[in-house]
Amino acid sequence: MTENEWLIQDVDKNLLSDLKQHINLPETVLKVLLSRGFKDVKSVEDFVFPKKEILFNPFLFDDMHKTVVRIHEAIESGEKILIYADRDVDGVTSLSILYDTISVLGGKVVWYVPSDEGYGISPAVLDKYKNDGVTLVITVDCGISTVSEVDYANSIGIQVIITDHHKPPQDGLPKAFSVIDAKIDTCKYPFKELAGCGVAFKVSQALMQTYGKYFDKKIAVVAKRGDRGYIISLVNGIVISEEEKNLNEINFDEYSKVIINDETSASQILCDSAHRLLSEYYKTEFYEDGRMLEFFENNIDLVALGSIADIVPLESENRILVQSGLAMLKQNPKKRLGLSYIFEECLKKQLMCAKSIAWYVAPMINAAGRMNKASVAAELLLADNEYKANTFFVELKKLNDERKEIQNENVKQFDILLQEQCDIEKDNIFVVFAKDLPHGVTGIVASKIMKLYSKPVILFIEDKGTDEATGSCRSIDGFDIVSALDKTKDLLVKFGGHTQAAGVTIKLDKIEEFRKKIKNIADEAISEEMTTKKFTVDCELKISETNKETYEDMNILEPFGAANAQPTFLLRNVEFEDVCIIGPNKDHLKLKIFKDGTYINALFWSAAKYKDEFNYKDKFDIVFNMDINKGNFQLIILDARKNS
């Protein structure tokens, strides 16, 4: 068996004892939290019970005020607005959020999702919508690297607002009217990892606020004691000044709203009191403004869906947004007609959780974009009657079936080409080129190869009838694929994405030169330790603790995903029984775990090659996740080691 690395976390027994006295949570849950760096009561409570009212103010984004004022003006003057989206789940959920918001506010808005134009803005599409009367384009989940395309838009009299969450190019931003992207170095927005739908949600939230009573008005929050007061001045929720002074010196007429609290305790510090009052004001505003609360409830399900699908870190704001969105979906899964059809098809007996959405729902929605018909997914999410929802669902289901067939064929073909074009043992990055294969599923195939070999992968497919190839990149922790591509940009037509997933277009005659250059970059940056497969173990369990009750206890840590993985446990000295090979390709194992008179059902994916080894009555240590399948408890084995 392979010697993968097991990173077994230590749990401080003193901290565990302290937390048990102050927080009413199961001990195993507390062990997992301690293993993940939560050391005190406040950090645990903030993570386990996040509050919606502590979401960051959208006006902390650079250019946000400028952006929403421009959109507001376009709505009021009847300008035609085009929303230009990326074609994945994040893109179409972003589109749906902003489209619905502008429509509700009375705007003349249309939308476009690329079919076969590739990533980003197309000048040909701009020409079409310019002729249709569009004067303002808003990108969602794309646009940050479209420098020349924005220049072209400017030249034909279209203003562009970019809303994106991808890493900006190093040689400068597009000359757009405004740019909303937390990953811009100068941006002061505190959380940098929103998905594109999260950014679209923030823009929509700020746009809604431009129609509020106190938009661009000064508000004062004052803690007073006698004739002294500590005053915090706000505009659109942004603190513009704070100071302690004599209340007689304050001109309250310059404020549109004043909130004052009398402090009776002489020992109370005025500054702390004012900030506590400010916090209470935010809570009240959030819960009492029915218009903003309705906006939140109408869109948070889409934020959850897009964020899960785009594999953004489920921490900080993302955790709150996804947790709230999942709660909304569980409460009313039929709220959005198109999604309800997908849930009925994909989930069946599966629980509504981040994992089931990532594994079953997102791939189906993504199928439309992968088959160059992303508009089908957008139409489905925007469907406002049963006929439309059913029509587009049937089409999406067909596209998903086609996607599965193409994916299986591409996996087979790329596996052959990988062996031919790469040195599996020596290469630190795999660059593979294919002809006569359909596009659309390259990212999925690249992910499978990356996970199998724990090495970065770039897969190219020739674009028929052109001198170019389009590629998908997937990378490992520690190797920023976008930065690597940036070092080869002289050889590329265009590229963009995240540190571990990106898209790229290249001229056919540049592929071999690119292969050499990117391999040299990888050789300098990637160590043997980086390509060793690692399993982080949260804590060790006894066989008596490995059960459905413990699994259900873990659900309090949901949603699971990037930066908050499903808990991984260690179980020592088990035996395997009833080992059999399963799966259409006969590559998985189904078996039973046995220890101290207890049997537990288990699955071990891609482990058929170990069947004979497991059939002997040896003792093994295993690392695993817990799972419920159709109501039955089971283990998902991640790795196993024979005891010496």
How much helix is in the residues? Answer: 40-55%
Low-confidence stretches: none
β-sheet strand percentage:
15-25%
Structural class: alpha/beta
What's the rounded overall pLDDT mean? 92
**Shape, please?**
globular
Strand order, biggest sheet? 3-2-4-5-6
**What count of helical segments does DSSP give?**
20
What composes the largest sheet? Answer: 5 strands, parallel
> What is Rg?
27 Å
Describe the structure.
- With 644 residues, this protein is of the alpha/beta class.
- It has 20 helices and 22 strands.
- The protein has a 5-stranded parallel β-sheet, sandwiched between helices. Strands 11-12-13-15-14 form a 5-stranded mixed β-sheet. Strands 18-19-20-22-21 form a 5-stranded mixed β-barrel.
- Strand 21 (620-629) and strand 22 form a beta hairpin.
- It is globular.
How would you summarize what this structure contains?
Helix content is 41%, strand content 23%. The protein has 644 residues and is an alpha/beta fold.
